[in-house]
């Protein structure tokens, strides 16, 4: 067993970091798959939005019958009154409003994807440059070949480095804590909406996948578009409600909330300990628990969980008060490394999405 553990450790660390490189590349591949699958599905649904029936105008066309002297002359049929016109106008107005909201969320999703791609690409370029050394002159780029890329992947710890950059100092840890908590509560919101509409796992799986891989603002923007499209495809019927009776006793969300917050507080002190990566994976596992159906999503309990998280955030800021000022924390999204910038900008885009929901783009 010791020998087996040593072999696994050898392939999980430089200079033969096959496990870490595979995990990081798998993250990228799954992110591209999830984004492509969701975008393709949303585009197809948008192009197949049913058009409300147009308002009837004028007299209906009637077939002319040959005159028959024996038959009495019947009065012409009365002009058809458009009794459904107000309902049709309301449906058309609602459809136009939802289409405008879809465009707004698509724009926010594009911003989120662009900022994420930029910072992730910058992280990869910085890592490769640090490994291969500076370019020969200021106007050139480091030599890049297939062999050098392979050596770079095996001799570096991209996954480990990215995770440690998130908590390398006080401002980075604060922004990471805020971004992860925002992801957790957005997941609760999405899980609740999915339950209300009885989304099957096939529909929900790509979104769950993206919540584990990418920052949350992109995923939640795409999910809100899905909610609008669902309403557009069934405007006359209310969203189906989940059954009221259940045989499974659901867990109060405060328990996973406390575990998540405690793990986030422990990440920075343990970033150089062997338990760091397992602790990171634990936080990722907790983030997906709202979709399990075993965690209660009642509003009162969610509000209680938000209050608990606020206490942990205050505790984080209080503990770093002697070494880090609030100004440094605020500037951390601009002065931090690329991993922190990716999460920090995601938190800001997520805040804009929340404002749009409150402003009138709700579902």
Automatic annotation (TrEMBL):
The chain crosses the membrane at residues 24-43, 104-125, 174-192, 204-229, 270-288, 300-319. Residues 58-70 have a biased composition (Basic residues). Residues 49-95, 233-252 are annotated as: Disordered. Keywords: Membrane, Transmembrane, Transmembrane helix. The keyword Transmembrane helix applies. It comes from the Eukaryota. Residues 81-95 have a biased composition (Low complexity). This is Uncharacterized protein. It comes from Periconia macrospinosa. The lineage of its organism: Eukaryota, Fungi, Dikarya, Ascomycota, Pezizomycotina.
């Amino acid at each position: 067993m010791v020998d087996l553990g040593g072999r696994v450790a050898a392939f999980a660390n430089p200079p033969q970091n096959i496990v870490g490189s595979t995990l990081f590349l798998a993250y990228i591949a799954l992110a591209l798959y999830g984004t492509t699958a969701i975008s393709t599905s949303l585009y197809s649904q948008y192009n197949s939005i049913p058009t409300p029936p147009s308002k009837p105008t004028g007299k209906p066309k009637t077939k002319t019958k040959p005159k028959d002297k024996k038959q009495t002359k019947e009065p012409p049929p009365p002009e058809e009154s458009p009794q459904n016109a107000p309902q049709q106008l309301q449906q058309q107005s609602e459809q136009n409003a939802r289409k405008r909201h879809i465009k707004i969320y698509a724009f926010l999703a594009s911003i989120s994807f662009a900022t994420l791609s930029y910072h992730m690409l910058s992280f990869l370029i910085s890592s490769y440059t640090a490994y291969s050394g500076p370019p020969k002159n200021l106007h050139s780029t480091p030599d890049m070949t297939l062999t050098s890329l392979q050596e770079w992947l095996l001799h570096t710890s991209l996954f480990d480095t990215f995770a440690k950059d998130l908590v390398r100092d006080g401002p980075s840890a604060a922004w990471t804590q805020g971004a992860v908590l925002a992801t957790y509560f957005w997941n609760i919101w999405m899980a609740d909406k999915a339950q209300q509409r009885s989304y099957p796992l096939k529909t929900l799986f790509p979104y769950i996948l993206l919540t584990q891989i990418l920052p949350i603002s992109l995923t939640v923007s795409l999910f809100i578009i899905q909610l609008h499209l669902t309403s557009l495809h069934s405007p006359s019927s209310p969203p189906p409600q989940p059954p009221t009776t259940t045989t499974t006793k659901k867990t109060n969300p405060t328990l996973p909330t406390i575990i998540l917050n405690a793990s986030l507080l422990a990440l920075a002190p343990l970033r150089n300990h062997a338990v760091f990566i397992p602790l990171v994976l634990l936080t990722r596992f907790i983030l997906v628990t709202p979709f399990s159906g075993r965690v209660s999503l009642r509003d009162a309990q969610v509000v209680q969980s938000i209050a608990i998280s606020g206490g942990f955030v205050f505790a984080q800021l209080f503990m770093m008060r002697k070494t880090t000022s609030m100004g440094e924390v605020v500037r951390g999204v601009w002065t931090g490394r690329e991993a922190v910038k990716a999460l920090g900008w995601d938190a800001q885009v997520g805040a804009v999405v929340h404002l749009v929901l409150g402003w009138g783009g709700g579902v």
